[in-house]
Every structure is written in structure tokens, then in C-alpha cells.
# Entry
Amino acid sequence: MTTNYVSKADKIFIENIQDILNNGTSTVGHKIRPIYKDGTPAHTIYVNQIVEKYDISKGEFPITTLRPIAIKSAIKEILWIYQDQSNDLSVLEEKHNIMWWRDWEVDNTNTIGQRYGATVKKYDLMNKLLDGLTNEPYTRRHIIDLYQYADFEETAGLHPCAFLTVWSARGEYLDMTLHQRSSDYLVAGHVNKMQYVALLMMVARHVGLKPGVFMHVIDNLHIYDRHIDQAKELLSRTPSEKQPKLILKEGKTNFYDFTLDDFELIDYEPVKPQLKFDLGI
# Structure
């Protein structure tokens, strides 16, 4: 594996994998919630309190090239949460063709419970953010918080992993911090990063600003015990020589008008083949 990284994201990805494997804490021997589909406890090795920063205005994007990442599906999922403001799995599957949430269906309701998009809708969080950034951009109160205990008491469901965003105007730029309580790093780490970068780009366009710095704060960054071989395979790969970039095309300005077709991913040549992972659910 070369040490001459083109991508900041690849450098950070490799360093974090090495940190988890070399210095992480194992959950083996402790009571845990996640299981694999076969019922086996899904143990992890993890590190805490990881912070990553990418200046989108300078072309720094959190896209690893060490394996293909489903960035288009990631963006469609974020549209489901913040545009559709839905917890309905049929909307996710039929409108957006995303199937990976079915394992978290709650009590045969065809939903994921009062979570994510349903929380956005219940508290009108998206409109409050857009209105606040438009009318009072320099207040320090632009926050979307999906971790609502009243919602947890209302229905069962997975507690939100990527649960809090804080938005800050800075001159012509809009900066955003994503707080995530838990990250399945190899499977969803860059999915989460890129979908929230896409969200930053759409919100910035809506309020007349440019996307600035994206900061990602992760409290528990983990690799599942059935993903160790895949982690070692990723460390053996040579990153792409190109720096991928996500572009939001010119034209639209209303947050609710954006679709996947308004995004273009350029210079993305990830290393193949794709890896398979057993999900902890």
C-alpha cells in the first residue's frame, strides 16, 4: 500500500482502521444489543471520540476510494429523511429503491417507528432550519436534533445513529457539524459522511450560501468482529490516484426541489471488487 495519498479521506480512513485494530476496545464478554441475522451477538472493536474535518470549499470530500460506496443511495436516503420527512419503508423502497432499512421495521408497521424523517416532520425541523438560516443566519441556534426521548417512548425503533446537526454561517459559507453516536465504519462510515455533505450543499444553496467546512464527530467508531478480514483487505489496497468530488448542479435553489439528478460525482474510481459485510442489526 502506498503512503502517498491523493485523498484526505483515504488517509483518515486508513489511520482510523489501524487505530481500531491496534488500539481498540472489544465488546466480547460484555452484554450488547446488536445481533447478526443468524442470531449471533454482533461484537465490535471500537475507539471513542473521533473528529474529522473536510473543507468542501477547497475540494476536500469524505469519499474513500478503497472500495465502492453507494453514494447515490446515500443521497436518496437523506432525501427520504429531510424532504419526504417519512419513516415509511414503502416510500423508501418504492420511490428511492433502497432496501437496507427493512431489517429495522417495527412491529409489522412498514415503518421504522417514530424516528428520523417522522421526527423531522413532527417538530417541523427542516423548515425551522431553513427559515432560521434565511432570516437570522448569525444566531448560534441552528440545530436539528433527532434524538427525541418522547419519540422513543411513543414507539419502538432503532435510536438514531447520525442524530444531530449544527449549522453555522461564516461569511459567504455555511459550515455544518454532524454528531453521530455510533458508526459501523466499514459499511456506513462514508455513506453517512457523503449524504450529510449532500444535505449541506442543498441547504447552503437554499439560503444563498456556499458549502464550507463539514465536521464529523463520532462517539463510538467501530468495526464488527465479522468485518476484520475486510478491514485487513482495505489496508492492503492502494488508493485511487484521483480525488473524487461531488457537485450540486446550478439552477435550482429550493431545498424541496432537489433530486438525485441534481448531483454529479466526478473522478470517482474506487478500488474493486466490492466487499461483503454481515450487518449488525
Observations:
- DSSP finds eight helices and nine strands in the chain.
- The mean pLDDT is 97.
- Strands lie at 25-26, 44-55, 142-145, 162-170, 173-180, 183-184, 210-224, 245-248, 263-266.
- Helices lie at 8-23, 71-82, 89-96, 117-122, 125-135, 149-154, 185-206, 228-236.
